[in-house]
């Protein structure tokens, strides 16, 4: 709102300032101001920063409970990432406050349309997948299973949200009585590492699917397989926590994840290295983890640059010292003095010969004498320049040493900050791994309860069959 007021006042100020005593503004400037004003009024894109500022205004209004004001601000934004994100958050508020999901689903559909206008295709695709999962979950919660299936089937299969979408897809199919198709979705979700949201639920869902289909023996096997997977995952998490304490979170999660092949999520093996990228993606979902990792990356880059600069300064200073040592060689100075003395002797000899020679020979001797004089002058210039060069080189050497010491101070400070930031990142990573371990313990408890209930049911059924 402040920007629009400024745009309205600005042309009035310009026209009032350009009176008779002042020359009129050029037409191209006036045209530019007019276009700038129109852009603010009709919501023409003035850059990503402008859209982000409007999004933040809408978020402030939403946080204060003024959802209508937030919706009005979002309606005036250009389509793109920030508008889509605003409508996504608005849909979350509608879902919490409304018993009917209509408004929330409409906001999510608008967010999907807005995300298509994002120039960053990768960011747009990630947001679109997130929106589809939210919409599918919301539709499933309110019993609109066909609508939920339609949303969830549009999620990309190579997205972070894919396992969660497959799990919800299976739940919606189960509610429609299609247990076989639901189990197919959960089986696909089980191909992903357990670090992804929805994978643990899919493992449990397989047992439930067999149970609902009447295959109690296979249901027990599915629950036992889930139990073994969760136990193995807890072992992996303990090893991962040990690696973080030993090598640090950045080395364990970021650097080692880059070395993992792209086929890890297609395998059934639950070794330590394969789900590391999934752990990294899950860990980096939190804004605090993103900021901590960003600080570590920035400080590591800075430390590497300072270390390289220090090496360059050390090499440069060594080269200057070698050069100075060569210039202070007494044999070189003696050679220059000998050349100067020989030049003077030759000049005296030529003058003596000129007095005794005929006119033709005198002309040639004068030419030789001039050449010798030029050579002596150049030698004196070299000597004068050489006498100043050691001072210049010594000054450069001292400056290089001062810069090297300053660089060492900066490098030491950066390394201290890096150590503190890496410790903060390690703490966040260990908290994340501990939370994941607790989730696996909870999932393990659920499977054990399901196995106990299944065995209890089978025992009761066996007793009923044996009774006359």
UniProtKB/TrEMBL annotation:
Return the InterPro entries for the record: TPR-like_helical_dom_sf
Q: Does the keyword Signal apply?
A: yes
What SUPFAM superfamilies does the annotation carry? TPR-like
Keywords noted in UniProt: Coiled coil, Signal
Signal peptide bounds: 1-20
What's the superkingdom here? Bacteria
Coiled-coil stretches: 365-438
Q: What is this protein called?
A: Tetratricopeptide repeat protein
